[in-house]
UniProtKB/TrEMBL annotation:
The chain crosses the membrane at residues 12-36. It comes from the Eukaryota. Belongs to the C19orf12 family. It comes from Plakobranchus ocellatus. This is Protein c19orf12. Keywords: Membrane, Transmembrane, Transmembrane helix. InterPro entries: C19orf12 (IPR033369).
Length: 102
């Protein structure tokens, strides 16, 4: 998604430099179209999780429980809110486990 935004911004900047305000609009539209055209397929996390097998979901839940210590929503929220390092660890665990299983 960063690449898409960067191409849109670059197109707008280049268009503005070359043709002023009208060029910014045209360049932004062209850059955005290029960003969309060359983007990777994106799937939301919920869709990816829904597509996993029940066994894979159970394994991910076990690993989260090992990291957090409990599976209650309160414990999970408290863990994620305590520090940036814990949030990063939790997100990395989820992302890495999903990547292994896709």
């Amino acid at each position: 998604m960063f690449k898409n935004a960067a191409l849109g911004a670059y197109g707008a900047w280049l268009g503005a430099v070359m043709l002023g305000p009208v060029g910014a609009v045209v360049g932004g539209a062209a850059g955005s179209w290029l960003g969309y055209r060359y983007s990777d397929d994106y799937q939301p996390l919920g869709k990816v999780m829904a597509d996993l097998s029940d066994d894979d979901k159970e394994e991910i839940v076990k690993k989260i429980q090992e990291l957090v210590g409990d599976l209650s929503f309160t414990a999970l929220a408290r863990y994620a809110m305590e520090s940036q390092d814990q949030r990063v660890a939790l997100l990395n665990l989820i992302i890495n486990e999903i990547k292994k299983r896709r």
